[in-house]
Every structure is written in structure tokens, then in C-alpha cells.
Design a protein that fits this description.
Shape: elongated
Strand content: under 5%
Radius of gyration: 19 Å
Largest sheet: 2 strands, antiparallel
Strand order of the largest sheet: 1-2
Helix content: 55-70%
Distance between the termini: 70 Å
Structural class: mainly alpha
Number of strands: 2
Number of helices: 5
């Protein structure tokens, strides 16, 4: 992959992941002060989906079954702690995400597991391929978590009053 030293690329991606995790923790803490909306639930996975453009580059590609496995690991394993730590509460007619004391620890724990897995997987695939695999894993995790949030959020919305329609 070009003239970039793979070791520097690996260190850079790990530092980038740590920075992103800290940013997510900071943003989530601030977000709990504002009401949740459907838009706020779906923007992260929609914005993240643009990352699939990385697979245009041949060095990032790998077999489809690897992608399916990574997605399923994200969906079933990595999303679970985020789902368990996400709760909503209603205040003054609006729905807010409750602050979770465990969220920062869960996110840092997921980052640690991801880094350890990254070390293991890098023995068998290139750095760009492992980046693609972990992107798909993260996408599966975020998509499942946000789908859970959406279902929980819409279940808390007040029912619209039904106005009877006259029969013609």
C-alpha cells in the first residue's frame, strides 16, 4: 500500500481509534442533556455507511464470508454491552437518553478487545484489510445498537389520538 510503513499505519489507526472513542464518550455525555430524536438515532450509521467507499481500493478487499463474519460479530457480540447500557427516560414530555456510568468503561473495554483482536488478525491479513474488517464489525455493532434505540424510542412515543373518520 503505497510508501506508508505498515507499523506506522497500525500505530496511527490505534491512536485514531482511541481518539474516536474519547470523542464518542464526550459527545454521548453532552447528548444526554438534549432530547433524543429519530434523526439523532439514525445519523451515525448513515454517516458511517459512507466508509464502505473504502472497498473501491483493491488492497482493502477480502472474501465476502469474512465481511459477513465481521458484521455478525459486531451485531451479536459487540453491540450487546451498548444495548444493555442504553436507557431512555421521559422528562417534560420529551425523551432523553439516561447517562450511563458504565458507558465509558464499556466503550473503552470494547476498544481494548478490538485492539487485541487487531493484533491477532494483523498476523494473517494486511493493515488495510484489517481496517476494512473492523469497519464492518463496527458498522454491525452501531447498526444493531441504533436499531434497538429506534425501537425503544418509538415505543415510548405517545400514541396519536385517533380521530374517527365519517363513513361516506
Amino acid at each position: 500500500m503505497g510508501n506508508i510503513n505498515p507499523s506506522l499505519l497500525h500505530v496511527g489507526s490505534t491512536l485514531g481509534a482511541v481518539f474516536m472513542a474519547l470523542m464518542v464518550i464526550f459527545i454521548r455525555m453532552k447528548a444526554s442533556a438534549r432530547p433524543v430524536t429519530i434523526r439523532k438515532i439514525w445519523i451515525p450509521p448513515l454517516g458511517m455507511s459512507t466508509g464502505f467507499a473504502m472497498f473501491v481500493i483493491p488492497e482493502v478487499r477480502f472474501p465476502w464470508w469474512w465481511a459477513v463474519a465481521a458484521f455478525l460479530v459486531g451485531w451479536f457480540i459487540f453491540a450487546y454491552p451498548l444495548i444493555r447500557s442504553t436507557r431512555f427516560e421521559e422528562r417534560e414530555g420529551l425523551i432523553y437518553a439516561q447517562r450511563s456510568k458504565s458507558f465509558a468503561f464499556i466503550l473503552l473495554g470494547l476498544l481494548l478487545v478490538r485492539t487485541l483482536l487487531h493484533e491477532f488478525i494483523n498476523r494473517y491479513v494486511s493493515v488495510p484489510q484489517s481496517g476494512g474488517l473492523f469497519f464492518i464489525l463496527a458498522f454491525g455493532m452501531i447498526l444493531h445498537w441504533r436499531l434497538f434505540m429506534y425501537k425503544h424510542y418509538t415505543g415510548m412515543l405517545p400514541a396519536e389520538p385517533q380521530i374517527p373518520q365519517p363513513r361516506v
